[in-house]
Write a structure and sequence with these properties.
Length: 149
């Protein structure tokens, strides 16, 4: 299987959106405050076109990564944030996300990023394993809370 990592193009957006629909169903991430919808994809692509990549196999998009950078007035550090990462189910666990991540990390480094963040549901073991393998440490100080009304 030949996989090519390249920058996302506007024509990729429908395919990326539908892959996301199949891998981010609402019952899998019930409490996630981010929602995967058309707006999430198009606005991210509009605002960060240089930080949106796809993995392609035989002309078909099989995975994607969408990141951004964050600067804070009180901090000298520039942060990278991996907002969305996904791989079509039948291509998972074959190293696609690894290649997507490696390329986005290079791009973030070139932009002067020193710390990369990602947020993951605590039950999402595949993603937790993935980020651990890429050298991420689980934050022991950041917790988000919710209240059902
Ligand atoms: C998380 C995800 C992006 C990983 O993509 P992938 O292409 O399958 O990952 P890779 O093949 O590059 O795997 C790299 C590492 O991730 C971990 N991993 C991947 N799939 C895993 C699985 N099914 N179970 C446990 N660990 C897994 C392993 O540590 C793996 O290393 P290994 O191959 O040496 O075991 C993919 O499972 C996915 O799209 N999940 C649904 C969407 C999601 O949760 N995205 C993250 C939050 S935005």
């Amino acid at each position: 299987m030949t996989i090519r990592i390249r920058e996302m193009k506007i024509d990729d957006l429908p395919e990326v959106f539908h892959i996301g629909e199949s891998i981010y169903p609402s019952d899998v991430f019930p409490t996630m405050y981010r929602t995967w919808d058309e707006y999430a994809v198009t606005s991210h692509f509009n605002n960060n076109p240089n930080l949106c990549l796809v993995a392609e196999s035989n002309g078909k998009v099989v995975g994607f990564i969408m990141a951004t950078t964050i600067e804070k007035s009180q901090s000298a550090w520039k942060y990278g944030y991996v907002v969305w990462l996904g791989v079509r189910k039948r291509y998972q666990h074959t190293g696609v996300a690894n290649r997507l991540y490696n390329m986005i990390e290079e791009k973030l480094k070139e932009l002067g990023v020193r710390i990369i963040l990602a947020d993951i549901e605590g039950t999402n073991h595949k993603a937790l394993n993935f980020f651990k393998k890429k050298g991420f440490e689980r934050s022991s100080i950041y917790v988000w809370v919710k209240k059902t009304l």
